[in-house]
């Protein structure tokens, strides 16, 4: 049994190392794209390219935050931080999303101003730089695909990169339209579109991040159902004072008071085991703190004392 556990642990460690290397590669790739798009955007006078560059810079930052948060959250628990540093990644994602929102608003404002004051744009530069951007995004997305499935922070980075890819496609088409028909307005439309997309996406991820930071009950957990399932267990009379919250995107915690009959107190360990396996199997809660009491606390206490006496 212990052998199996060790093996699992080792495997997990390996997984972390490989994804850290992938994160580093992704950071450098994205930084390169960002620089290319900034330079291209300035040379070609394309706001859409600049807004794509900002989107990419933000990805680079979000990957950097993922990496830093990863290192921090690996630090074990200590006396100051008894839960460890697992929320570091959530806080990282939060900071990143706020920055993204501000940048998107700024780009939309610039785009709208250009709408009333159109400027000539070099479509050729815009076209080729956006193709370079798309390639870089594609490679990064492929690198992060596997890890993004079970980590909110990497998922946010992965989604950013996918959306970057989409906006690069938009800019490629835009560059082509400008080259062929000199439709400079396309650049403005793209800029506002990319900005709006960033806003929409950030909003949903911010909600999730804030929920975790506010210790909200996880969406997938139905408290009344959870309570009634525990109360259906043999010898459990009542459940109250139930709190369920997330420590990070993977770990759900719970605490509650369990009322049992005084005569069943000797069965407490058994009852506790049943409750814990129910929580684990049906609700994915691996860490629960259960406080047992006799029914109902206040009136029975005195009787219990005299009875023992």
Written overview of the protein:
The structure is a single chain. The protein is mostly helical and 309 residues long. It folds into two domains: 2-213, Cation efflux protein transmembrane domain (Alpha-lytic protease prodomain-like); 223-308, Alpha-Beta Plaits (2-Layer Sandwich), CATH 3.30.70. It is 71% helix and 8% strand. The chain has helices spanning 2-44, 47-74, 88-116, 123-144, 152-181, 185-213, 223-231, 268-283, 297-308; strands at residues 238-246, 252-260, 287-294. The longest helix has 43 residues, at 2-44. It is elongated, with a radius of gyration of 27 Å. The relative contact order is 0.10. Mean pLDDT is 84; it is low at 1-14 and 299-309.
Describe, in short, the structure shown.
This protein is mainly α and 309 residues long.
Notable traits:
single chain; 309 residues; mainly alpha; Alpha-lytic protease prodomain-like; Alpha-Beta Plaits; 2 domains; 3-stranded mixed sheet; 9 helices; elongated; disordered C terminus
Class per helix and strand makeup: mainly alpha
Low-confidence stretches: 1-14, 299-309
Give me the CATH superfamily of the largest domain. Cation efflux protein transmembrane domain
What CATH architecture label of the largest domain applies?
Answer: Up-down Bundle
CATH topology annotation of the largest domain: Alpha-lytic protease prodomain-like
Please, how many helices?
9
- From the alpha-carbon coordinates, what is the Rg to the nearest angstrom? 27 Å
Mind telling me the CATH class of the largest domain?
Mainly Alpha
Largest β sheet strand count, sense and barrel closure: 3 strands, mixed
Taken together, the total number of domains comes to 2
Number of strands: 3
β-strand percent reads 5-15%
Task: Please list the strands of the largest sheet in the order they lie side by side.
Answer: 1-2-3
The end-to-end distance, rounded to whole angstroms, is 46 Å
User: In one word, what is the shape?
Assistant: elongated
Element pattern in H and E? HHHHHHHEEHEH
> What is the residue-averaged pLDDT?
84
As a percent range, the share of helical residues equals over 70%
